[in-house]
Fold this sequence. Notes:
3-stranded antiparallel beta sheet, elongated, 9 strands, alpha/beta, 6-stranded parallel beta sheet, 282 residues
Amino acid sequence: MSEQQRIAATLADLSPGDLLLVVTGAGVSTASGIPTFRGSEPGAVWRQHDVELATHDYFRRDPVGQWRWYLERFRSVDEAEPNAAHRALRRIEEIAVDREVDFLLVTQNIDCLHEAAGSERLIKVHGTSDRVRCSADADCELAAPQGSLPRREIDLEPFERRPSDRTLPRCPRCDAPLRAHVLFFDEFYTDHVAYRFAEVEQAAATAAVVLFVGTSFAVGVTALVLRQARARQRPVASIDPAGLPAGMSRLGIEALRAPAERALPELAQSWTAASSGSARRT
């Protein structure tokens, strides 16, 4: 039996009320033209830019520099379209719902491609590129821990034309500088309610099956989910063309070395076929 078949069989064994938890990383969006942000790929952003750029500390020291960097990233995600991987995850969600299996998709990505593909049971645990928020912390209703506003409501043209302190995007409520509505490297998952980290923790503690897609397992949320699944001896699978990171092969993860845009549509078809076969046998 191939890795693809084993993963499909694991999904087919899910019973009504079980939770299928899917965690996606940058690799799910590479076929849409968005570069990965970690790893060995030539276009990996973190190989070209210091991680310091995506910190709150850097924002405080050089908000103009950080805004210029994030606007470059936002342009790439704004132009992207969902690929076959995003659409297949929507199909997998539909299959789960049809079989009364609970489903949750947790993405580390800030792009909006899962939503564009129709995913509904979705948590964007690292924030989202289509919103911004005030940097004044709890002193403003548009700041953390609850506030934000759509990026489209902010006129960024003056800053894009001539980046400077004078043209920085400003909060419409208090005039403090706006910032990206994303989780910086020196911040915590609990800093904003929109990250819905308590729900992620609950899902990690109860998931019957965990499927990682396109992630290098380099951030806290993947460590949390993997640790919880292993502690409860729940099946864990990973889909990524690079396979598992060094040292993780001994963890009992079913690893499928394949691009998400190829493997996920096949997995959706296999799960449908396996489930249908199980129903006939009973």
